[in-house]
Design a protein that fits this description.
Blueprint (H helix, E strand, L loop, with lengths): L1 H59 L6 E6 L2 E7 L6 H17 L8 E6 L2 E6 L2 E7 H6 L5 H22 L2 H40 L6 E3 L2 E4 L1 H34 L4 H46 L1
Antiparallel strand pairs: 1-2, 3-4, 4-5, 6-7
């Protein structure tokens, strides 16, 4: 009799344990489903709040006056404002072309630059040719500077830029720039060959000495990384270092050579931004995608947990 009771109790106990496990499993599934439903709603709420903050910032920001730079050889001399009938870009381009034409005519000295003051207007002349005009509104845009003072600053800046423009294009300076470029090319070739020779010797020495010593990485008899995978990762890192050094060598070469000649000086000065700006955009895009990536990781983990509980 006692033996039968014990046997019956043994049959009931597993059933009760199974029932409790099923209850906890259902509770866990319910919580996971609720989290999956709540996460998109929370993301939508954050997205709706962000435009509100942007709208508030736009309402607070002051009205910006459209301006455009007047440039010579890629250098900004000053900025001019515009109106709806005469946009700033059109005005700046016209002034830039007039200053460039004056700079290319070496027969006209910078001593011919002068100011002509009229009622409400001060014009910068190169001989009899007007280069740019300054009105009272330009002075107010520059922080309340008087029109005549601002025109004098423009005249001085134009004279300096024209002198530099002509100095860079003298045959003697161009010849020296060509010699420097040839020397930089020789240094580039030597550096390229030296890097290849160094890394080839280094690769052979490391592979001969350390490749046979790389073993599988295991933790408590669980294989984490195979020896081939670890060696491939090390070689990949080494190749990345080689590529980075060669890239820096090429960048330094072009940055130096472009700055030697007046026609490519602006490109040399902007080379850093030309390379860095795409990387900055990619970095911002990656940072902006982090919330979505986190949501996907959480979703994958939750789905794995659901599949595990459902077994």
């Amino acid at each position: 009799m006692i033996t039968n009771d014990i046997a019956a109790f043994d049959l009931v106990k597993p059933c009760s344990d199974r029932w409790i496990k099923n209850r906890y499993r259902r509770l866990g599934l319910f919580l996971l489903i609720m989290m999956l439903v709540a996460l998109p709603w929370m993301a939508t709420a954050q997205e709706t709040q962000a435009p509100n903050r942007d709208n508030q910032a736009e309402q607070i920001s002051p009205v910006m006056i459209p301006t455009a730079p007047v440039m010579l050889d890629g250098e900004v001399l000053f900025e001019v404002r515009g109106v709806s009938a005469y946009p700033a870009e059109v005005r700046a381009k016209k002034v830039s072309n007039q200053i460039e034409a004056f700079a290319l005519d070496v027969s006209r000295s910078t001593q011919s630059l002068r100011l002509v003051d009229e009622s409400g207007l001060t014009t910068v002349f190169a001989g009899k040719q007007p280069l740019t005009a300054v009105v009272d509104a330009d002075g107010r845009f520059e922080g309340g500077v008087e029109r005549q003072v601002l025109a004098q600053v423009y005249l001085k800046r134009i004279a300096e830029a024209v002198e530099e423009h002509r100095e860079q294009r003298k045959p003697t300076n161009l010849l020296f720039a060509l010699l420097y470029a040839l020397g930089a090319t020789g240094i580039l070739a030597s550096g390229w060959w030296g890097l290849r020779w160094t890394f080839n010797r280094l690769d052979a020495a490391i592979e001969r000495r350390y490749k046979t010593r790389v073993k599988d990485f295991m933790v408590y008899k669980v294989l984490i990384f195979q020896a081939d995978q670890m060696w491939a990762g090390f070689r990949g890192t080494q190749q990345a270092c080689r590529f980075l050094l060669m890239f820096l060598l090429i960048y330094a070469y072009f940055n130096f050579v472009f700055r030697l000649f007046p026609w490519t000086a602006y490109l040399g000065k902007q080379l850093f931004h030309i390379i860095l700006d795409p990387l900055r955009v990619m970095g911002k895009g990656f940072i902006g995608a982090i919330p979505s990536l986190v949501f996907l990781v959480i979703l994958v983990l939750l789905l794995r947990s659901v599949l595990k509980f459902s077994k």
